[in-house]
Amino acid sequence: MLVAANPLIEVRLGLMVWTIVCFGITFFVLKRFAFGAIQKIIDERRERIRRSIEEAEKARTEARRLLEEHRALIGQARGQARKVAESMARRVKEETEADRHRRLEETKRQIEAETQRALHQIRAEVAELTLIATAKVTGKVLDESDHKRLIEDAISDLDFSVLEHPETVR
Q1: Do the beta carbons of residue 131 and residue 151 sit within 8 Å?
Q2: Neighbouring residues of 42: CB distance < 8 A, sequence distance ≥ 6
Q3: What's 5's DSSP letter?
Q4: How far is Cα 114 from Cα 108, in angstroms, rounded to an integer?
Q5: SS3 for 145?
Protein backbone atom coordinates (compact mmCIF):
# COMPACT_ATOMS: atom_id res chain seq x y z
CA MET A 1 0.00 0.00 0.00
CA LEU A 2 1.11 3.47 -0.79
CA VAL A 3 1.56 5.93 1.91
CA ALA A 4 0.62 9.47 1.06
CA ALA A 5 2.36 12.47 2.42
CA ASN A 6 -0.95 13.99 3.43
CA PRO A 7 -3.51 11.93 5.39
CA LEU A 8 -6.43 13.55 3.52
CA ILE A 9 -5.38 12.11 0.21
CA GLU A 10 -4.48 8.71 1.55
CA VAL A 11 -6.43 5.84 -0.08
CA ARG A 12 -8.38 3.70 2.43
CA LEU A 13 -10.83 1.06 1.45
CA GLY A 14 -13.30 1.61 4.33
CA LEU A 15 -13.46 5.33 3.74
CA MET A 16 -14.00 4.73 0.06
CA VAL A 17 -16.96 2.39 0.66
CA TRP A 18 -18.62 4.76 3.11
CA THR A 19 -18.10 7.66 0.70
CA ILE A 20 -19.78 5.68 -2.12
CA VAL A 21 -22.66 4.65 0.16
CA CYS A 22 -23.21 8.27 1.35
CA PHE A 23 -23.02 9.49 -2.23
CA GLY A 24 -25.61 6.90 -3.34
CA ILE A 25 -28.02 7.81 -0.52
CA THR A 26 -27.59 11.52 -1.22
CA PHE A 27 -28.09 10.94 -4.95
CA PHE A 28 -31.26 8.86 -4.31
CA VAL A 29 -32.73 11.51 -1.95
CA LEU A 30 -31.87 14.32 -4.36
CA LYS A 31 -33.30 12.41 -7.30
CA ARG A 32 -36.43 11.52 -5.43
CA PHE A 33 -37.18 14.95 -3.90
CA ALA A 34 -35.00 17.72 -5.39
CA PHE A 35 -34.22 16.91 -9.04
CA GLY A 36 -37.93 16.69 -10.02
CA ALA A 37 -38.70 20.09 -8.43
CA ILE A 38 -35.54 21.62 -9.88
CA GLN A 39 -36.34 20.20 -13.32
CA LYS A 40 -39.90 21.54 -13.04
CA ILE A 41 -38.58 25.03 -12.13
CA ILE A 42 -36.10 24.86 -15.06
CA ASP A 43 -38.89 23.80 -17.46
CA GLU A 44 -41.15 26.61 -16.23
CA ARG A 45 -38.36 29.12 -16.62
CA ARG A 46 -37.56 27.80 -20.11
CA GLU A 47 -41.26 28.22 -21.03
CA ARG A 48 -41.34 31.78 -19.63
CA ILE A 49 -38.21 32.65 -21.62
CA ARG A 50 -39.73 31.14 -24.78
CA ARG A 51 -42.95 33.16 -24.27
CA SER A 52 -40.91 36.31 -23.59
CA ILE A 53 -38.95 35.77 -26.80
CA GLU A 54 -42.21 35.28 -28.76
CA GLU A 55 -43.68 38.43 -27.20
CA ALA A 56 -40.50 40.34 -27.98
CA GLU A 57 -40.70 39.14 -31.63
CA LYS A 58 -44.34 40.24 -31.78
CA ALA A 59 -43.41 43.60 -30.25
CA ARG A 60 -40.53 44.00 -32.73
CA THR A 61 -42.85 43.17 -35.64
CA GLU A 62 -45.43 45.63 -34.34
CA ALA A 63 -42.74 48.28 -33.84
CA ARG A 64 -41.55 47.79 -37.43
CA ARG A 65 -45.11 48.06 -38.70
CA LEU A 66 -45.68 51.23 -36.67
CA LEU A 67 -42.38 52.67 -37.91
CA GLU A 68 -43.41 52.04 -41.52
CA GLU A 69 -46.80 53.64 -40.85
CA HIS A 70 -45.05 56.58 -39.22
CA ARG A 71 -42.71 56.99 -42.19
CA ALA A 72 -45.66 56.79 -44.58
CA LEU A 73 -47.55 59.44 -42.55
CA ILE A 74 -44.49 61.69 -42.52
CA GLY A 75 -44.19 61.26 -46.29
CA GLN A 76 -47.86 62.15 -46.72
CA ALA A 77 -47.50 65.14 -44.40
CA ARG A 78 -44.50 66.38 -46.38
CA GLY A 79 -46.41 65.93 -49.62
CA GLN A 80 -49.40 67.79 -48.23
CA ALA A 81 -47.15 70.54 -46.86
CA ARG A 82 -45.51 70.86 -50.27
CA LYS A 83 -48.94 71.05 -51.94
CA VAL A 84 -50.13 73.66 -49.44
CA ALA A 85 -46.96 75.71 -49.97
CA GLU A 86 -47.33 75.49 -53.75
CA SER A 87 -50.99 76.42 -53.48
CA MET A 88 -50.20 79.40 -51.25
CA ALA A 89 -47.40 80.52 -53.58
CA ARG A 90 -49.74 80.22 -56.58
CA ARG A 91 -52.48 82.14 -54.74
CA VAL A 92 -50.06 84.90 -53.70
CA LYS A 93 -48.80 85.13 -57.28
CA GLU A 94 -52.36 85.32 -58.63
CA GLU A 95 -53.33 87.97 -56.07
CA THR A 96 -50.19 89.97 -56.90
CA GLU A 97 -50.90 89.69 -60.61
CA ALA A 98 -54.54 90.74 -60.10
CA ASP A 99 -53.43 93.68 -57.96
CA ARG A 100 -50.89 94.69 -60.62
CA HIS A 101 -53.57 94.53 -63.35
CA ARG A 102 -55.99 96.51 -61.20
CA ARG A 103 -53.40 99.20 -60.56
CA LEU A 104 -52.41 99.26 -64.23
CA GLU A 105 -56.05 99.71 -65.28
CA GLU A 106 -56.54 102.42 -62.67
CA THR A 107 -53.41 104.21 -63.89
CA LYS A 108 -54.62 103.95 -67.50
CA ARG A 109 -57.98 105.46 -66.48
CA GLN A 110 -56.22 108.30 -64.66
CA ILE A 111 -53.98 108.95 -67.67
CA GLU A 112 -57.02 108.94 -69.97
CA ALA A 113 -58.90 111.35 -67.69
CA GLU A 114 -55.89 113.67 -67.47
CA THR A 115 -55.45 113.50 -71.25
CA GLN A 116 -59.10 114.41 -71.82
CA ARG A 117 -58.86 117.25 -69.30
CA ALA A 118 -55.67 118.54 -70.96
CA LEU A 119 -57.27 118.32 -74.44
CA HIS A 120 -60.30 120.21 -73.21
CA GLN A 121 -58.08 122.87 -71.68
CA ILE A 122 -55.98 123.12 -74.88
CA ARG A 123 -59.12 123.48 -77.02
CA ALA A 124 -60.41 126.22 -74.73
CA GLU A 125 -57.08 128.08 -74.90
CA VAL A 126 -56.89 127.67 -78.70
CA ALA A 127 -60.41 129.05 -79.00
CA GLU A 128 -59.55 131.99 -76.77
CA LEU A 129 -56.33 132.71 -78.67
CA THR A 130 -58.19 132.44 -81.99
CA LEU A 131 -60.76 135.00 -80.86
CA ILE A 132 -58.09 137.39 -79.66
CA ALA A 133 -56.07 136.99 -82.88
CA THR A 134 -59.16 137.43 -85.06
CA ALA A 135 -60.23 140.54 -83.19
CA LYS A 136 -56.76 142.05 -83.65
CA VAL A 137 -56.53 141.10 -87.33
CA THR A 138 -60.00 142.22 -88.33
CA GLY A 139 -60.20 145.08 -85.92
CA LYS A 140 -63.84 144.43 -85.14
CA VAL A 141 -65.72 142.86 -82.28
CA LEU A 142 -67.42 139.61 -83.24
CA ASP A 143 -70.80 138.44 -82.04
CA GLU A 144 -71.62 135.04 -80.50
CA SER A 145 -72.30 133.20 -83.80
CA ASP A 146 -69.04 134.51 -85.32
CA HIS A 147 -67.15 133.37 -82.23
CA LYS A 148 -68.64 129.93 -82.48
CA ARG A 149 -67.90 129.56 -86.20
CA LEU A 150 -64.30 130.75 -85.82
CA ILE A 151 -63.67 128.45 -82.87
CA GLU A 152 -65.01 125.41 -84.70
CA ASP A 153 -62.98 126.25 -87.81
CA ALA A 154 -59.78 126.61 -85.76
CA ILE A 155 -60.36 123.43 -83.81
CA SER A 156 -61.21 121.40 -86.90
CA ASP A 157 -57.90 122.44 -88.46
CA LEU A 158 -55.95 121.11 -85.46
CA ASP A 159 -55.01 117.38 -85.23
CA PHE A 160 -55.70 116.17 -81.67
CA SER A 161 -55.82 112.47 -82.64
CA VAL A 162 -52.23 111.90 -81.50
CA LEU A 163 -53.06 113.20 -78.03
CA GLU A 164 -56.32 111.24 -77.80
CA HIS A 165 -54.62 107.81 -78.17
CA PRO A 166 -52.03 107.64 -75.38
CA GLU A 167 -51.03 104.03 -76.19
CA THR A 168 -49.37 105.23 -79.43
CA VAL A 169 -47.29 107.75 -77.49
CA ARG A 170 -44.43 106.15 -75.52
Answers
A1: yes
A2: none
A3: S
A4: 10
A5: helix
Q: Is 139 left (phi over 0), alpha (psi -120 to 50) or beta?
A: left
* CA 123 to each of CA 131, 163, 169: distance values in angstroms, whole numbers, following the listed order: 12, 12, 20
CA 82 to chain centre: 4
Q: Per residue, what are the HEC states of 37-66?
A: HHHHHHHHHHHHHHHHHHHHHHHHHHHHHH
Question: Which helix or strand (DSSP H or E) is residue 27 part of?
Answer: helix 13-29
Tell me which of 148 and 86 has the higher pLDDT.
86
Mean model confidence pLDDT for the chain? 85
Report how far residue 134's alpha carbon sits from residue 13's, in angstroms, rounded to the nearest whole number: 169
- CA angle (134, 137, 139) in 5-degree steps: 95
CB atoms within 10 A of CB 35: 12
Question: How far is it, in rounded angstroms, from Cα 98 to Cα 102?
Answer: 6
CA 165 vs CA 30, 110, 112: distances in Å: 121, 14, 9
**In terms of pTM, does the model score above 0.85?**
no
Question: Does the pLDDT at position 84 exceed 70?
Answer: yes
> How many H helices and E strands in the chain?
4, 0
With contact defined as beta carbons under 8 Å apart, do 156 and 149 qualify? no
> Which residue type does 38 have?
I
